[in-house]
Amino acid sequence: MDRRRFLVGTAAIVVVPLGSASATPEAMAEAIRKVVGDSAVTESRVTLDLPPLIENGNTVPLVVSVESPMTVADHVKAIHVFNEKNPQPNVFSARLSARNGRAAIGTRIKLGDSQKIVAIAETSDGRFWSASADVIVTLAACLEEST
Amino acid sequence: MRALHFGIGLAIIFAASWAAAQVGADKRRSGTQDMGEALQKMQDDDTANPGMLFVQLGSQSWAKKAGTADKSCADCHGNAGTSMKGVAARYPAIPKGAEAPVDLDGRINLCRTENQKAERLPPESRELLALEAYVAHQSRGLPIAPPADPRLDAFRDQGAAIYRARQGQLNLSCAICHDDNAGRKLAGVTIPEAHPTGYPIYRLEWQTLGSLKRRLRNCLVGIRAEPYASEAPEYVMLELFLMDRAKGMVLEAPGVRP
Amino acid sequence: MANVLVNAPKTAKRGSVVEIKALIMHPMETGFRPGTMGKIIPRNIIERFTATWNGTEIFDMEMSPAIAANPFVSFFAVASESGTVGLRWTGDEGFVVEERVVIAVE
After folding, report:
1. What mean pLDDT, rounded, does chain A reach?
2. Which residues have C-beta within 8 Å of that of residue C94, sequence separation ≥ 6?
3. Which CATH number goes with the domain that contains A114?
4. Residue A63's domain spans which residues?
5. Torsions phi, psi for B145 (to 5 deg)
6. Do C30 and A87 touch (CB under 8 A)?
């Protein structure tokens, strides 16, 4: 079999299903506004850890951590994660306190497509901090009958 | 005591370098090696590997009485940690009194119908996958060791023939992807060598655990061939061939795959 | 039967920070996927995961359909005193699962 026929043949397998409902960058901005209100958001202190290339969007490991002493006087109160292309912009919202000792949360998320992910942290002084990541989601090969 | 520790330390170093030398000699790659670091970590950590939820479920089923014989797996087989060790590494095999080989789920269902006098568990059902995962997990870390049963040869040869035959609208064989083009990219995905080292696997695409049969069916659909019926003997023949091709590779069940 | 895997240390030094990891079997059906007959499969997700230490809430997470099937969550806690960490998942269709682990603080 020659290389071209192989590529032509296999490329046809990867048909992208088009989603109907979808969040948008605007919907994400709106969801973020609901959390932060009119406060300024500083792009600092937050680390968003995702694999550089995502092998399957159904289960994407993600860790959000925030630099903070996590004392009663100075700690992270909340961590929120948003996305711009899933059907809904919210991924999760977690509440923390000095009882956590470290402001870091790990979980696994679904990503319908390559897109931007934003994490926002609220500290006990009422300020907001953020980090964002652009992720590339590759499609799995050889799926089953569409269900 | 210190000398003993030193000795053990040396032994570990030698074992590790011996293993590294083996890897150097053996060019075969498990699908694990084609995954990114995040997924490898997910597979290796038992409290992060979602397949372990099924292993836990399987350990509960193992002890549960079933059927009119009112027997559990444990009533006959005792502690799976000893009785099932190495079993997954040598399947498919021909059961006593039978003429055709069965895979691990086939064997579990034979136990259900013949010994427990219970109904068969449906293919890809959670209970069957959980039991399969629990049994396979007992062989984790062991090399794949197909039995030296000459009656298997004909079935294995048929599996090899299926592996090499072109089929489907795309006119591809298993071998074209997984031998000739393994390691290259299919869209963004690295084509693996197709060694059945991790079954049943937690495939992220499925968002659940699944059997080798389900994976083979996905391949067939991928090349637009008609998949064999759900419990067709072709799957067992292919598995016999693939397990022989992966002989000596280490079992990782339950594997995580994209 | 609840099918949960929890990873937390059995013992911890007083004041140290420990990591707690929890994995639970759940489909996290988004409510956006069509089923075999083209009809949308109804949403069935875990909406909330909370953790308590001797009854006091130490962690609370609101989940969305974007959390992957068989949800995994890891977080940290200060080992303040010996006791029980209670984990609770609640969601659609009356889903409630509770799990406890005991941590001895020295």
Report:
1. 85
2. none
3. 2.60.40.2470
4. 38-137
5. -140, 80
6. yes
Separation between Cα atoms, residue B89 and residue B101, nearest integer Å? 15
Q: Tens digits of per-residue pLDDT, C15-32?
A: 999 999 999 999 999 999
Is B219 labeled as catalytic in the residue annotation?
Answer: yes
- Provide the domain count of chain A: 1
Contact C70 B50 (CB under 8 A): yes
Q: What is the pTM of this model?
A: 0.88
Q: Is residue A113 part of a domain?
A: yes
Q: Is residue A8 part of a domain?
A: no
| Three-class secondary structure assignment of chain C | CCCEEEECCCEECCCCEEEEEEEECCCCECCCCECCCCCECCCECEEEEEEEECCEEEEEEEECCCECCCCEEEEEEECCCCEEEEEEEEECCCEEEEEEEEEEEC
Q: Which chains touch C (3 or more CB pairs under 8 A)?
A: A, B
**What digits encode the pLDDT tens for the residues B31-65?**
999 998 999 999 999 999 999 999 999 999 999 99
CB contact under 8 Å between B207 and C21, yes or no, is: no
Q: Which residue of B has its CA nearest to C69?
A: B207
Give dist(CA A107, CA C59) in Å, integer. Answer: 14
Q: Which of B127, B258, B129 is nearest to B203 (CA)?
A: B258
Cross-chain residue pair A92–C66, CB shorter than 8 Å: yes
**Chain C residues inside the 8 Å CB shell of B57:** 3, 25
Note whether residue A54 is domain-resident: yes
Number of alpha helices (DSSP H) and beta strands (DSSP E) in chain B: 11, 5
Q: From the centroid of its chain, how far is CA A83?
A: 5
- Domain B30-258 matching CATH 1.10.760.10: the answer reads yes
Which residues, including other chains, have CB under 8 Å from residue B81's CB and lie 6 or more apart?
Answer: B138
User: Cα–Cα distance between C89 and C49 in angstroms, integer?
Assistant: 5
Q: How many CB atoms lie within 10 A of CB B16?
A: 10
Domains of chain C, earliest start first = 4-105 (2.60.40.10)
In-domain check, residue A125: yes
Identify the H or E element spanning B2. helix B2-25
Residue B24 token pair: 């150097």
The ipTM value here is 0.94
Residue B75 contacts A where some CB pair is shorter than 8 Å: no
Q: How many CB atoms lie within 10 A of CB B162?
A: 18
By DSSP bridging, strand B185-186 and strand A103-109 are unpaired
pLDDT classification of B5: cutoffs 50, 70, 90? low
Amino acid symbol at A27: A
Distance (Å, rounded) from C-alpha B101 to C-alpha B146?
12
* Chain A contact set for C58 (CB, 8 A): 97, 99-100
